[in-house]
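Researcher: Please predict.
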Amino acid sequence: MPKRQVYLDHNATTPLHPEVKQAMAEAMEVFGNPSSLHDYGRHARLLVEEARERVASLIGARPEEIIFVGSGSEANNTVLSILACPKAQCPYHRKPGTRIVTTAIEHPCVLETAKCLEERGVPVLFVGVDRYGKVDLDQLRDALGEDTGLVSVMMANNEIGTLQDIKTIAGLAHEHGAMFHTDAVQAVGKVPVNVDDLNVDFLTLSGHKVYGPKGIGAVYVRKGTMFCPLIRGGHQEKGRRAGTENTLGIIGLGKAIEMRAIEMEAEGQRLLELKAALRRGIEERIPDVHFNGHPTDCIPGALNVSFDGAEGESILLYLDLEGIAVSTGSACASGSLDPSHVLLATGVPVEQAHGSIRMSLGRENTMEDIDYVVDTLPGVIGKIRDMSTAYAGSRQ
C-alpha cells in the first residue's frame, strides 16, 4: 500500500467541497420542475435563481446574462456554433463566411468544434503562441479583419496554466467588429475574473473545476450580444438552452461559486507557496528537467514539467503505485498517445513533450503532500531512466 495518497490532478477535476456536498444533500428532496407554477416548481426555481445570482456576482455579470448548460464543453460548443447557423433559419446570423479566429492551444472542445465548423464552410484561423504559451499578438492582428465574426481565446490553459492578456485581446477583436469569447473554465475561481473589466462578450465556466459537481456549466452572454441556442426544443433558460434544468447540479455550482468567492484569495497564495516548493524540490533533486508554461503569469496551482529520458505515461503509472495522482496533459485527451498539442505549439520538442506530466494542486493539498512527492519522484524518474536507451544524462 502507498505510504500516502496525494491528489495532484485538480485541473482535470476537483473533489466536491464539503459545503457543496451538504447543500446538494439537502437539495435532494427538491424534485420539482423549475418551470412548473405550483409550489414544488416555485421552490426549485427560487434555488436555481439564487445560484444564478452567485455565479453572476463572482464574475461581475448580471444574473440574466448567465445561462446554465450541461458542461464546459457544451458551453464552448454553444458559443462557437453561433456563427454556423444557416441565415435562412436563424435571425441572429451575421453573414455567410464570417470567420472564427482562435489559437493553437485551446481545449479540444474548442479545437474540434472549430474544425467541424470549418468543414461546414465557416473559415477558421488558428493563431500561434510563444514558448510560454502566450498568444502571439502580431499573428492575432494579422488574422483579424472585417470578416472576423468571433475570436475565442482561453483565459488559462488547462495543461500549462499560462494566463492570457484577455483584456488586450478582446480589445483587438472589438476593433475589428468581432465578438469575443474566453474559455475561463480553468480561471474562474482561481484568479479574479470580471467580465466588464475584461470586456468579453462570452465567457464559459464549469462546475467540476471549482469543487462543484460534474454535469453542470454556465455561459455568460453580454446583454445585447448576438446569440443562437445550440440545444432547441423548450423555453428553459429564457429559450437559450432547452431541457429541464439540472436543479441539483445548479445548486451545487451555486454553492461552489459562493465558496470560491470566500476562499479563492487565501487559497491562491497558499497554492503559490506549495507550487514553488514543489518546483524547487524537483529542480534540486532531479537533473535534466524542463518546466513548461509561463513561470509567473499563470494560475496558482498548475505545474507542467518534462523529464528527459522518461515517458509521461510511465511516470504517471509509477507515481500512481506510490499513491500520487498526476496527469500527462488534458484529461479530455488522455486516451491519445500523441504528444500534447499545447506543448508542441510552444516549441517543445516531441521527445520532451512525451516526457511531460502535469501536477495541479488544490485546496486540500498540504506541504506534507509536497514533501512526499519530492521524496518519491526522484526514485521514479531514476528507475524509468535506467530502463531507457534514449537517456544519456546523469543517472539517479
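Model: The mean pLDDT is 93.
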